[in-house]
Amino acid sequence: MQEECGICGFNNDKNDSIFSCKCKNMKSEWVWDSQCTTPELCLFKDDKTIIFHPKSSNGTSVVRGTELFTSGIHYWEIRVITPLYGTDVMIGVGEKDLCLEGSECKYSSFLGADGHSCGHSYTGGIQYKGSFDYKHVKEFSNRSVVGCLLDMFHRKLYFFVNRELSGRPITLKGNAYYPMVCSTAARTGVQLIYTRSFEAKLQHFIIMENKLPREDEHHRYSSLIKVLLEDCWPLRLPNRRRISVD
């Protein structure tokens, strides 16, 4: 897992520069797509860091990732690097044909406004098909880490805030999705800090379904299984209260 610096710790309240993060982030399997964005945003740091509406905001700015997920299991984490405010800041997924044009002319909760996308709002709600679900959904804010686990085999999307499950998994209807982020607020920023994809194998679904001995029995595992569990830690998130970020 990536290491944290003092800037990025969840409990760090210092007002440090948003660009002074020195995290040793792992190499990304994908980044944000500079060719598939609305105009009002800037990409930095190898297209991993986004600043929405760098001057002022007149609507909703949206960006999608470079990777289209059609199969397998995919996990990514996004760190919030500025205070959040305004109509909405959302993290989620959208289908290939989701139209981004026109969103910059109005303030909206863009992701999940219809059945072609789904988004987790910073205010503590998950929107899909135009309806918000607030049950057990966590808010996120500056320095939060928001995770998405997309299981394309079962068409399930899980959200996490600081590696704790947030809300109920969403059953999606589409066949392919891009990771997406949107914001209505000026000078808000997020950073892609971790991406990982897994094949749709039985061993991965066993880990996701928690069909394993309790943690206090891990000493019984072979070294090979221990390495597998360590390598596949994102798949354990849906059935764990918390996994340390250190």
Structure explained in plain terms:
The chain is mainly β and 246 residues long. The chain has 2 domains: 32-198, Jelly Rolls (Sandwich), CATH 2.60.120; 201-240, no CATH class. Helices cover 7% and strands 32% of the residues. The chain has 2 helices and 15 strands. The strands form 2 sheets. Strands 2, 3, 5, 10, 11, 12, 13 and 15 form an 8-stranded antiparallel β-sheet that branches. The chain has a 7-stranded antiparallel β-sheet with strand order 1-4-14-6-7-8-9, with no helix packed on it. The chain is globular and about 60 Å long.
Helix content: under 10%
Contiguous low-pLDDT stretches (5 residues minimum) are: 1-8, 10-22, 242-246
- Can you give the mean pLDDT? 86
Order of helices and strands: EEEEEEEEEEEEEEEHH
CATH superfamily of the largest domain: SPRY domain
Provide the CATH architecture of the largest domain: Sandwich
**What is the strand tally?**
15
| CATH class label of the largest domain | Mainly Beta
Report the principal-axis shape.
globular
What portion of the residues fall into strands of 2 or more residues? 25-35%
Provide the structure class: mainly beta
Number of helices: 2
Could you tell me the radius of gyration in angstroms?
Answer: 18 Å
Under CATH, the topology of the largest domain can be stated as: Jelly Rolls
